[in-house]
Amino acid sequence: MKRECILVTGANGQIGSVLTGYLRGIYGDDQVIATDIREPETAAGRFEKLDVTDAASLAQIVSKNKVTQVYHLAAILSARGEQEPMKTWQVNMGTYFNVLEAARERGVEKVFYPSSIAVFGAHISNEPGQWAYLEPATVYGISKAAGENWSDYYFKRYGLDIRSLRYPGIIGHQSMPGGGTTDYAVDIYHKAVKGEAFECFLNPDTTLPMIYISDAMDATIRLMEAAREDITVRTSYNLAGMSFSPAEITASIQKFIPDFTITYNPDFRQKIADSWPSHIDDSIARKDWSWRPSYTLDKMTEEMIRELRKKDL
Ligand code: NAD
Ligand code: AKB
Q1: What Gene3D superfamilies is this protein classified in (predicted)?
Q2: Distance between CA atoms of 272 and 140, rounded to whole angstroms?
Q3: N or C: lower Cβ tally within 10 Å for the chain?
Q4: Which of 27, 96, 113, 140 is catalytic?
Q5: What ipTM score was computed for the predicted complex, to two decimals?
Q6: Ligand 1 centroid to 10 CA: how many Å?
Q7: Nearest-angstrom CA–CA distance, 120 and 136
Q8: With contact defined as beta carbons under 8 Å apart, do 135 and 122 qualify?
Q9: What are phi and psi of 261, to 5 degrees?
Q10: Is the pTM of the predicted complex or chain greater than 0.90?
């Protein structure tokens, strides 16, 4: 296998703390450098503290280590983003420009850019296709839509091999989410396993696109390993796992924990969720790089409960 040096930004977050392990499994511990603005909770492999708004420090790490691939995960997510719109724009766009420029100037071969279902907003169907109109309602969604277009620009203008997924809400047992609107779907399992009731910040019938972490990792690796000529979407691929509402995830949990209870107290995140579609048409990802999710809601629930029960919550 060709020698790779992979840099992961935002590696201590919900996705990064899992993805970094997947990448180390594929490429070897020494070839993956985890970075984040905050220190990891447990030391596991190469880590460097890096604020990606600091272009010079990023460029230095890329050059010093002859980085060949960057997975740029650092961002402020939808719900937290609405608390500080200008900071969110500056962090999400500023960090991405720094990554794009470091990659372009210093010979990085591939970049992974995580987009989101948050790019969708008004004037779309409930199952938008790949080329649906983008009118995001949050600063987070606006930054992701802009980032998608910059990815396409850098590919066409400079030939930089940038690949991107519009992730749905990601659910996993390994890590906690960081300030999104779909976070309830992780928190609910933690409460259920602890034997506690759950208060949900969305209405019972708010159906959103979601994906289990194993499927999200599979899609990410599949996309990044696909042949360059098979990638026909250079903005960002629609990606779907499953769709469900708070009432439906509750019913699924109750199959395993019958006395689990939920109450509803919608807050500002309801408006964000209402701006997103309930389903996603990912037929182009399926066609281009053979994407298929493996997890249903009940299969995910069974695994989440089993894995969380092993932890000392
Ligand atoms: P997260 O909030 O859990 O993690 C983000 C990480 O970025 C954090 O560890 C944070 O410390 C770090 N960070 C923030 N600002 C930074 C900076 N200036 N420099 C360096 N690090 C910084 O987010 P996540 O859920 O792991 O998401 C990772 C990426 O995937 C994000 O770009 C997000 O938009 C995208 N995404 C996530 C989901 C999801 O459901 N988790 C869905 C769609 C897209
Ligand atoms: C969020 O809710 O902000 C994220 C996302 C879907 O991008 N989980």
Answers
A1: NAD(P)-binding Rossmann-like Domain
A2: 10
A3: N
A4: 140
A5: 0.99
A6: 6
A7: 5
A8: yes
A9: -125, 155
A10: yes
**Residue 182 beta carbon below 6 angstroms from any ligand 2 atom:** yes
What pLDDT was estimated at residue 18? 97
Which amino acid, one-letter code, is at 157?
R
- To test the ligand 1 pocket, which listed residue (77, 89, 175) has its Cβ within 8 A of the most ligand atoms? 77
d(CA 185, CA 213): 12
Q: Are 270 and 205 in contact (CB under 8 A)?
A: no
Which ligand is closest to the CA of 178, given by its number? 1
Please choose, from the candidates 222, 239, 246, the residue with its C-alpha nearest in 3D space to the C-alpha of residue 116: 239
Q: Which residues contact 24 (CB under 8 A, 6 or more apart)?
A: 31, 32, 45
Which atom of ligand 1 lies closest to the CA of 17?
26
Token code pair at residue 150 = 């910059």
Write the Ramachandran bin of 66: left for phi over 0, alpha for psi from -120 to 50, otherwise beta: left
Predicted local distance difference test score (pLDDT) of residue 313:
62
Which residue's CA is the nearest one to ligand 1's atom 3? 13
Kindly list the averaged pLDDT for each block of 10 residues, start to end, along the chain of length 313: 92 97 96 96 90 98 98 98 98 98 98 98 95 98 98 98 98 96 98 98 98 98 98 98 98 98 98 98 98 98 98 72
E strands in 252-309: 262-264
Q: What is the pLDDT of residue 165?
A: 99
pLDDT given at position 225: 97
The answer to whether 50 and 58 have CB atoms below 8 angstroms apart is yes
Burial (CB < 10 A; 0-12, 13-18, 19+), residue 197, is exposed
Q: Is 140 a catalytic residue?
A: yes
Q: How far is the CA of 36 from the centre of ligand 1 (A)?
A: 10
Given this model, what pLDDT does residue 43 score? 76
User: What residue ranges line ligand 1, CB within 6 angstroms?
Assistant: 9-10, 12-16, 36-38, 50-53, 73-75, 77, 91, 95, 114, 116, 167, 169-170, 177-180, 182
Between CA 97 and CA 104 the distance in angstroms is 10
